[in-house]
Amino acid sequence: MIDGRRNVRPIRWALVGGGAGSAIGYIHRCAATRDGYFQLVSGAFDVIPEQSKQFGKELGLDPARCYGTYKEMFELESQRSDGIEAVTIATPNNLHFEICKAALESNLHVICEKPLCLSSREAQYLRKLARERERVVGVMFGYAGHQMVEQARQMVCNGEIGDVRIIKAEFAHGGCSQASPQEKLQWRFNPNVAGPSFVLADLGVHPLYLMRVMVPDLKIEKVSCIRQSIVQSRAPLEDNAFVTMESNDGAIAFMWVSAVNTGSQHGLRIRIVGSEASVEWCAEEPNKLRYEPARGFPIILQRGTHGLYPSARAEDRIAEGHSEGLFEAWANLYRRFASAIRGETRTMDEPSWYPDIDDGAEAVLWVERCIESSERNGGWVNMY
Ligand code: NAI
Q: Which top-level group of life is the source organism from (predicted)?
């Protein structure tokens, strides 16, 4: 159980993006600092320099450390004896590569929003640079931090569902089912900012990572994808896609990704079908995991209860019956990022895995392969 105690100094941390009115700045700041492993000391929060400085001041930071641009921040912070050690990148997609590159060149550890970058070439470049500089790069596939995701992983790894046969995943919300959703979502339909994909890169990479976590031995070998711009003004970017995947051990996976699933609030769920049982997890009820054996009655496993794997209980912050949510899930990942940055060895009873640069790069490659397949009317494309 996490109770807020720590015996280490917080990592001096900064945020690029995530400024006033942004979708995810607040959850990054809350999650990173929740357990005291990171301390926000600096930032370049906004594309408009004056607003960035003003926002930092309103957060209570030292005005001298509220910067107009990330370049200025990296340069001036590197000259301080108490300069930043890690940075989170929470800007629109097209900036992730250049900011991540600049951060690594400044010897900073990085937590980057998804997608890590816009091409495999960029991902390989970042991976090499991170290795050379011996820096940690985490990628915020935040849903994976929920404890019941770890429970599902342990159940699959310990053979509790038998051989994995089928994976059915979806992230299909209805937030963009009308032609003109909120103004602040508009960059997601612009290929110059979002990159070559809308929903595959924005949404699909989340269930893709959940598949990797819950079925760690799974290696996708081939993908077949068709994608559509249901709201036609979004072409060439898709707002809906269907992806089928074949894996190394014969398991088949299917994913529906959509932003035009009218009426759906969120719609992230994953079902792993085994030869003996199935497990199903849904982000809208993250404290639960449904277990359905071939014979007998289905069971709803509940976060925080006796009988769960120790690693699925290690990051509880409050006893069973109370709800924990996305902020806690992200805080779990931030704790693991902090452990990785410090080079700590975690006990067997704590999850030590976290979404890293390889996971980020794999997601970028997967999006590329899906696009390739869709350009061939859904023909099979090898992943590697
Ligand atoms: P947003 O448009 O709401 O906010 C972007 C923020 O970045 C704004 O504050 C903007 O002023 C700032 N910004 C833009 N250019 C900048 C620059 N050059 N320097 C400093 N700040 C700059 O975008 P949103 O929705 O917050 O998305 C940001 C990123 O987070 C995207 O890559 C998106 O894919 C990702 N995201 C991830 C989620 C997750 O579950 N992990 C959920 C939502 C978004």
A: Bacteria
